[in-house]
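Sequence only, no structure available. Ideas?
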Amino acid sequence: MEKRKSIIKHILSAGLICSLALIGSSTIANAVESAENQLNSILKIYGLESINIEDGQFLRIGEKMKLPTGSEWKLSTEGVVSIEDGQIKAIGTGTVFVTYKKDNKVHAIEIYVPETQERIKKYYSPADEGRDYYKVIVDAGHGGKDSGAPGFGKNESVISLEIAKKVEQKLKEKNIHVKMTREDDTYLKLEERTVKANNYGADAFVSIHLNSATPSARGIETYCHPNKQMYSPLAKEIQTHVISKTGAVNRGIKYDNLAVLRGSNMPSALLETGFISNKEEYNKLIDPSYQDRLATGVADGVEQYLKNTLILHTLPTIDTGVVINTDTLNVRSGYGVGYPKLGELKANEKVEIVAVGDYGWYKIKYKGAYGCVSGKYLRLASQGLADLNGHWSKDAVLDFVSKGYIDGYPDYTFRPENTITRAEFVKVVNKVFNYTDKAQINFTDVNSSQWYYEELCKAIQAGYIKGYEDNTFRPENPISREEASLMISRIKNNLKGDGTLGFADESQVSYWAKDAVDSLIDNGIVGLNDRNLFRPLDNITRAESVMALSRAENK
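Reply:
I predicted one. Tokens follow.
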């Protein structure tokens, strides 16, 4: 982090610290007071535009850090740290700002000394077991009176928030739940940032900053805490993806005792997105399109890290459905249109449902993760074959479907009044009567590559089909009521009629079907309509096929 390149890079033991001559020190305030009040006092002395506020440091009582290179070191309050022998030593709890001069500029470092004992988890695991989504904290560095490093118009706190909000949006588009440490230009104490992260139980913490040094310094670097190097893969994934998206100078992965990295319980990284002190990089950093590329790199890196290291609970499928009533259905990251769009589903596309949400929405499996869709545009398998409600064939059809004799359509309809082809009818017959043996067939319009080939082989073996005189079967033609009757009568050849037809359109029955129609009507397998018509040449419907075969099965 070039803006603190001479600041301590890690907690040093006394034997490794080179003694510096103390030119002089004083305190700006005489009592421990709030961090914001301390900062206000500093700004009254030096002015907002003439001070460079560095990234905060974290010490525990008794720990030391090397004084930064400079002069005229001052403390904003007493009782938190002491300056002696070229070192800053934590002596009490609270927050203090150390100011100093370097290169004719005033710099301020916020140091936080907590009351609690150190707890660094060697291996992180999410607290809420069974969770099926990732949780990430996005921290926009500085804020409010803490403006960070000055730029050529905008300060660090403003630009970091702009980038952080884009990161938030990109992560939400990946169905990752996000909480921001700040949503506007608000001042936050160092500990407030990590308390929010720890209370949220995030899987990762990402802090967005801008660097500052000489006008020629350039590039991007990502920080990890030196005591948490097992989490350095997070920093590496972010750095790799951000460099890939921006083409910026790669300054690599670095380690520092930064407060937000040390105080957070989860894997954490701090990204320095570029140098606000470099006019060329500054112009990029305030460009929305460049910010978008930065944010995409961060989001991709975080997602890759989480997928590589954290296995989420897999939700079981509780129902299936199909998209209806629209050409496209938006998939969102939460239950409602206010959540970011993850993608789209097409009409008649099937979905697997894993949870029932609020407001008539459902959580579905989507692209290896989860998304949410409105139930107004789904027909669910659990609702049954919706177009059978009130239909006279419903019970028989549902019985056949449950036995696997016949299927509905992918949109969970049965379409009972649709016709059925000769091949489809044969397939149902074979299932109803459990015909499995096969014989060779030589129909000129059927070959072995067609789905119904083996079904017709079974039907020939069973003896209930013969084909037409021209040696065709015409498998994809609709089957007529008298053709279906002939096939059923060949199976139920023990059933006999009285030898007379006696219905209004009996003259339309083909000579080869008269005995079959007679036997099936007399035995209640097929029937007449309310006008005493059999309609022998009409195509039999799917519902009529099921009803006739159901009655035949039980004879």
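The longest strand covers residues 94-102.
Hope that gets you unstuck.
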